[in-house]
Write a structure and sequence with these properties.
The chain is an all-alpha fold. It contains 6 helices and no strands.
């Protein structure tokens, strides 16, 4: 394999690695928004356990949906910043709530992971990058031709 091919593969691998936390956060946010808005039994049980009223699930579901829209819409860098910040507050608030309720790591570890992944997703993505354009490039990526 030539040095140029190795460099291209390394560069594309780095681009892909940058999108791993972003994809995890986007997937979790989409699923979480649906669960909150649908008020599935897991959400109802968690909110009862934590002492939150059920209308708070609707507020979180709408906020997560708005964050997804802001992140996936091309342009609007300020809205993306606020969306990522909001998600950090959502996941950080979940961690704090579970800790305050005396729950163990089985309850607060995943929200902590997603808070960290949100930080990583925002920090590692190059400024001015369109989420949809970059995802399209990653999906249509082809292996370099060897001479």
């Amino acid at each position: 394999m030539s040095t140029r091919t190795t460099s291209m593969i390394r560069s594309r691998s780095l681009k892909l690695a940058r999108w791993v936390p972003a994809a995890a956060v986007l997937a979790e946010t989409a699923v979480g928004a649906y669960w909150d808005l649908a008020r599935i039994s897991y959400v109802r049980e968690s909110f009862d356990h934590l002492g939150y009223p059920m209308y708070f699930a609707t507020i979180l579901g709408v906020a997560k949906t708005a964050a997804l829209a802001a992140i996936l819409t091309p342009g609007h860098p300020r809205a993306k910043e606020w969306a990522y910040a909001g998600l950090v507050f959502v996941y950080g608030g979940a961690v704090a709530s579970h800790l305050a309720a005396g729950d163990g790591p089985d309850k607060w570890a995943m929200p902590l992971f997603f808070a960290a992944a949100t930080f990583a997703a925002r920090a590692w993505l190059p400024p001015g990058t369109s989420t949809t354009d970059t995802l399209r490039v990653l999906v249509t990526w082809r292996r370099p031709q060897t001479a």
